[in-house]
Specification:
The chain is built from five helices and five strands, in the order E-H-E-H-E-H-E-H-E-H. The protein is α/β, with parallel strands linked by helices and 127 residues long. The chain starts with a strand and ends with a helix.
Length: 127
């Protein structure tokens, strides 16, 4: 069984549990051990990245004390983890996420309603 690690950074984790449950069922059916590590905000990122070889980072925009784009910049510039794809989302349709990330590579934008489908594209690329 292959392990896949997702770091999910969001200050409102309650809604993501349903998505995580759905993904875990699909992962099991595909002989994948899916480990999703929820993080309430972007604190202690350096220690977290030393724990697991993450395959994907799922990042909310609206968080405290900083918005997700600040944490993405930290991941890319300070931690030098350009190889890990980041799925960046917001429930606020008025936020221009593309403008916030500028030319940062390997950052993929979606809205909150599409997060589950977009995660599937990364975790189960052949389905």
């Amino acid at each position: 069984m292959k392990n896949k690690f997702i770091l999910w950074i969001d200050d409102m984790q309650n809604w993501s549990h349903i998505i995580t449950s759905n993904l875990s069922i699909l992962a099991s059916d595909n002989n994948i051990n899916l480990i999703v590590l929820p993080q309430l905000n972007g604190e202690d990122l350096k220690q977290i990245f030393m724990m697991h070889p993450f395959d994907l980072i799922v990042m909310d925009y609206h968080m405290e004390p900083f918005n997700g784009d600040v944490y993405i910049e930290q991941i890319r510039q300070e931690e030098h983890l350009d190889h890990i794809p980041i799925l960046f989302y917001s429930q606020d349709q008025n936020v221009d996420l593309g403008n916030l990330i500028g030319n940062m590579q390997n950052v993929h934008i979606t809205n909150r309603a599409s997060v589950e489908d977009r995660i599937k594209e990364f975790v189960f690329p052949n389905n």
